[in-house]
């Protein structure tokens, strides 16, 4: 079992959770970050202030020996990407940067490379059954395309070199420190704003950040994880209206969920140019996570209720 692990993107939302869990297990953790002073206590800092891991090979510390690299850094999905060539921008970081890091790690003798991808590498929606790792990928946008291309480039690199590649595809991640859409949903519920979510019954997979971090730590060490792509989510799926109700309960806020029919939401989305937003809100997206259970015996250590309770407690303390 490895003792030293490099975490690229260690200062991020997921990275901090991964670092904490590695430290709790007695690992030496080296956080590869662009800005100083952003790491949890106990994590060794490796600064590389460069775009897309340029120069990572030349700047790999001569004394650094580690068993695994966990790669979390990425150009993240943005709802309204204004880049003139969005796919090229995503590729530069998510594909080319990922391969620079993997190649440098291999030359430094690293045994295993754990890449945190995204469900968007395979699909935006499921259609009546959960999406499995065996399904044909159909990424819906430039971000998803870049993640799929990175997955395939890493798999080819692993076959060529013998480096152990493990790929993890999470859905929406939530927990203390969450931002973007999930944070905005909590804020709206906390303020008592009526939301048109009362009729949205489509089930969606989500994952609590500490569940995802636990899966990542297992994948960095379990021998049987090598070579696999894993879908990782909480034990059960939730409908958007159920999620909003559960958050309202944890936030001690009123449940103001208007039963607006999904067809009407779709119409509003088309009229306002926000079709993609409505599709994500209304559509089903369920993941089949049985493979990681079968391969390495992993199950989420926390329930969705526990995750939402911790997330709401963080929100109340900070906002």
UniProtKB/TrEMBL annotation:
Pfam families cross-referenced by the UniProt entry? Epimerase
What is the source species? Answer: Trinickia soli
> What is the name listed in the Swiss-Prot or TrEMBL entry for this protein?
NAD-dependent dehydratase
Q: Which PANTHER family match?
A: BIFUNCTIONAL POLYMYXIN RESISTANCE PROTEIN ARNA (PTHR43245), BLL5923 PROTEIN (PTHR43245:SF58)
Ranges for domain Ketoreductase: 3-176
Could you say which residues form the signal peptide? none
Q: Which domain of life is it from?
A: Bacteria
Q: Which Gene3D superfamilies match?
A: NAD(P)-binding Rossmann-like Domain
């Amino acid at each position: 079992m490895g003792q030293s692990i490099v975490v690229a993107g260690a200062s991020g939302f997921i990275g901090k959770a991964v670092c904490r869990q590695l430290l709790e297990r007695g690992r030496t953790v080296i956080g590869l970050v662009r800005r100083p002073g952003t790491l949890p206590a106990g994590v060794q800092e490796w600064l590389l202030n460069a775009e897309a891991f340029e120069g990572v090979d030349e700047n790999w510390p001569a004394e650094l020996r580690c068993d695994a690299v966990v790669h979390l850094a990425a150009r993240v999905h943005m709802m309204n990407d204004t880049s003139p060539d969005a796919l090229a921008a995503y590729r530069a970081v998510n594909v080319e940067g990922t391969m620079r890091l993997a190649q440098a790690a291999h030359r430094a003798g690293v045994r295993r490379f754990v890449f945190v991808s995204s469900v968007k590498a395979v699909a935006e929606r499921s259609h009546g059954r959960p999406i499995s790792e065996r399904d044909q990928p159909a990424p819906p946008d430039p971000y998803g395309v870049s993640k799929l291309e990175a997955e395939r480039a890493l798999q080819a690199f692993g076959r060529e070199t013998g480096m152990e590649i493990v790929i993890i595809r999470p859905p929406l991640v939530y927990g203390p420190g969450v931002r973007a859409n999930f944070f905005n949903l909590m804020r709206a519920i906390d303020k008592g704003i009526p939301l048109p979510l009362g009729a949205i019954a489509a089930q969606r997979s989500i994952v609590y950040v500490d569940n995802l971090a636990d899966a990542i730590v297992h994948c960095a060490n379990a021998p049987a994880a090598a070579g696999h792509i894993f879908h990782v989510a909480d034990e059960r799926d939730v409908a958007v209206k159920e999620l909003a109700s559960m958050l309202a309960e944890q936030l001690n806020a009123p449940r103001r969920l208007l039963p607006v029919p999904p067809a009407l939401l779709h119409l509003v989305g088309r009229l306002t140019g926000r079709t993609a937003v409505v599709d994500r809100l209304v559509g089903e997206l369920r993941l089949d996570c049985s493979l990681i259970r079968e391969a390495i015996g992993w199950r989420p250590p926390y329930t969705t209720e526990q995750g939402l309770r911790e997330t709401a407690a963080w929100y109340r303390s900070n906002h």
